[in-house]
Specification:
395 residues; alpha/beta; two-stranded antiparallel ribbon; 32% helix; 15% strand; globular; disordered C terminus
């Protein structure tokens, strides 16, 4: 790998795959039910030795870039399968490697079914905030999120959310995957009833070779669905939560950077450390093809600055120059950003395509911007066309 490039934006979010198994079987899961089956060859949970090396590498990156704060995100599989005692050991050695003057924001994403008071006590001690995945009311949730014995996971998840709500300062929010079969306003209102600070909606992972399910392929059905979520969000008089994708569209329309990697032109800030210590690009690329996220790097042999120079990460360094010509000329580029990287993929052109959700994103962005205009906001959609990329700019 090449030496450190001073102009490259550093990583600020480190996703640790602390467990590589799950107690439920979501049919859309990109870890266990996608073309890439790397999980079969990975340890069921991260060892303390791997966590210690990861903490050392994070600390090294923090010092090299003088980062005032970093995010450490505990992920899986289902991270709570690591067990409270082992998780405490992992957190302790990761923190040991990071300079004491650096703020460490620790987040955990769980299906919620295993949350107990013991876990809440651990989260308190280590200042871990927790997000829970739930796709809506029971019927909506159980379309895709069943246990391994094909039973409902909704009641166990809700029980975990209610426990988490007893300590609201630990509750980071809820995450749902969009399903066109479900009623968007009903899903939004159900999730909002748990009073989360944030609701995230993810579009199902899809590519141009394996496009998302649509009832009518001629219609931007996912954009229409999310527009109805936006309307429900605005209509709620007591809503204190944010809906991250929608807030980001508002922010980007106003010239502010987004907080997620799925839209906007801000360089991706996250990197993945697998349970065996290998370092990978965003692991949602597993939904694309076998090995798409693989970087042939690990926390024992490679610094994060070295990883940053990997050819597969050119999209991070070169940004809009790696996008399709249609995207570079689009007046909505500053907001859309070309869409999420995995959703741009095709075998024929790699990632140099518009998002498979291009029409949906356009519909949603214009719907939000139209609403902003009605509320007196000035929306400026004029922008210069991004120059054509150099020959080595993309993946």
């Amino acid at each position: 790998m090449k030496a450190h490039n001073e102009g490259a934006a550093p990583f600020t979010a480190f996703i640790l795959k602390v467990a590589n198994r799950c107690n439920i079987d979501c049919d859309y899961c990109y870890v266990f039910n996608s073309a890439d089956q790397a999980w079969r060859h990975l340890p069921a949970r991260m060892s303390v030795a791997v966590a210690r090396s990861a903490g050392h590498r994070i600390g090294e990156h923090v010092a090299a870039h003088r980062l005032p704060a970093v995010h450490v995100i505990l992920h899986g599989g289902e991270p709570l399968l690591a067990g409270p005692r082992h998780m405490a050991d992992l957190l302790a050695v990761v923190r040991e490697g990071i300079p004491t003057g650096t703020r460490v924001h620790i987040e955990l994403q769980t299906n919620g079914t295993l949350i107990t008071e013991e876990w809440l006590d651990l989260f308190e001690r280590h200042r871990v905030v927790v997000g829970v995945s739930l796709d809506g009311p029971q019927a909506a949730n159980d379309r895709h999120r069943l246990t391994r014995s094909s039973r409902s996971s909704a009641a166990s998840a809700v029980r975990g959310i209610q426990l988490l709500r007893s300590r609201p300062h630990l509750f980071a929010g809820l995450l749902a995957v969009v399903d066109l079969t479900n009623d968007p306003a009903e899903v939004h209102d159900h999730l909002a009833s748990f009073e989360p600070p944030t609701i995230d909606f993810n579009l199902p992972h899809a590519t141009h070779d394996e496009p998302p399910h649509r009832g009518d392929p001629s219609q931007p059905e996912y954009g229409i669905w999310m527009s109805r979520v936006y309307d429900a969000w605005l209509a709620g008089t007591d809503n204190q939560h944010s809906v991250r994708m929608l807030e980001d569209i508002v922010a980007l329309t106003s010239g502010v950077r987004s907080s997620v990697e799925t839209i906007g032109l801000a360089p991706p800030a996250s990197i993945v450390i697998e349970s065996d210590g290998t370092i990978e690009d965003v692991d949602t690329l597993r939904s694309v093809e076998e090995g798409a996220s693989r970087l042939d790097a690990d926390v024992y042999r490679h610094s994060f600055d070295e990883v940053h120079q990997h050819p597969k990460l050119a999209h991070r360094r070169l940004g809009a120059a790696t996008l399709a010509e249609k995207c570079r000329a689009c007046p909505l580029l500053e907001v859309c950003g070309g869409g999420y990287l995995p959703h741009r993929f095709s075998m024929a052109r790699g990632y140099r395509n518009p998002s498979v959700y291009c029409a949906d994103l356009e519909y949603l962005i214009r719907h939000v911007q139209g609403s902003l205009r009605q509320h007196g906001w000035h929306v400026n959609t004029d922008r210069a066309t991004v120059p054509s990329p150099s020959a080595d700019a993309g993946q």
